[in-house]
What we know:
This protein has 398 residues and is α/β, with parallel strands linked by helices. It folds into 3 domains: 10-206, Rossmann fold (3-Layer(aba) Sandwich), CATH 3.40.50; 221-278, no CATH class; 299-396, no CATH class. It has 15 helices and 9 strands. It is globular and about 70 Å long.
Amino acid sequence: MSKKYLDIDVLTAAQERITWTFDTFTKIYISFSGGKDSTVMLHLVMDEAIKRNRKIGVLFVDLEAQYKITIEHIQEMFDLYCDHIEPYWVCLPIALRNAVSQFEPKWTCWGDGVDWVRKPPKIAITDRDYFPFFHYDMEFEEFVPAFGKWYGGDQLTACFVGIRADESLNRYRTIVRDKSRYEDKGFTTWCGGGLYNVYPIYDWRTEDIWTYNSKFNKPYNRLYDLMHQAGLSIHQMRICQPYGDDQRKGLWLYQIIEPETWGKVVARVNGANQGALYAKDPGNILGNLKITLPEGHTWESFAKLILASMPDKSRIHFENKIAVFLKWYQDRGYPNGIPDYADPKDEAAKRVPSWRRICKTLLRNDYWCKGLSFTQTKSESYDKYLQVMKRRRAKWGL
């Protein structure tokens, strides 16, 4: 889909989208993370809310093992707009991706029986019965839309989300892919029922974010200043759950910026130290860039060796995914099995199957096997999925 440029600047366009949202939706809330994009969006939305003397919801899902500076910024923003927000600072045991460990591929923030990195603030929601939809170890990706449906009830509801299409291909797809929109507005997507996401700054560049901060001199997360001092460009700076597949590349920053927090994180999150040491290194340790075949192995035998080295839970999970992958291609032109390797460009583009692709997925600890063209399985369906896969693999002989 090609870009179509408007005859107004991105700030004016964002303000117009926000005004339209307030005119159109009965209930409004913001999904806030404390990052640069999220913060600018919060300022813009609150300008409109204050102008209309209207209160709106602000959701912040606290992931526990985060930078202290980010948490201080969140508190600053909640205090700044306290008269015009309904605060939902959530400190509940939510399951999160942990790409730096095969022994703990998911970890639970604010979980039971562990020493937390820090205590929840007084404003935080810690009562596990507060939300009727919540259950222990609920996935983050489940919680966020469930909150929106709970908050909106049966009313037409808008959730402001501060993501930009230029930041990544996945975010671009989130906004532009064919989905139901409200009144055919390209900056909205339907989330089910009467709930819609609204992306008022989707067409901003990174430079626009910092131009806004410079021009209006409003609070922003000072962690970015320290990231800049550490040598990162404005396009490399990320503030989010740091143990994900892409985010683990920035783990090394913890040791430099907040060594005290880092010490607690290492004790709290399995594999954090290894991720900090090797997440950016190429090779077989974490499957980055080019991987090499050990002497005496084929890619298939190497894949089976990697699987055999895993804890049972992770091994069974990956074996199920691989079985589906093999069966899919068995029915589509590879009755005698997939090749050991293929043209690297075709493998990278996911045009052909190979055991080398499987090895790369395993070495990267790509839990949901996105490198094999899978998408994430919703957790409430996962136990049923395991039972189904046990029956299918027995039938397939894989």
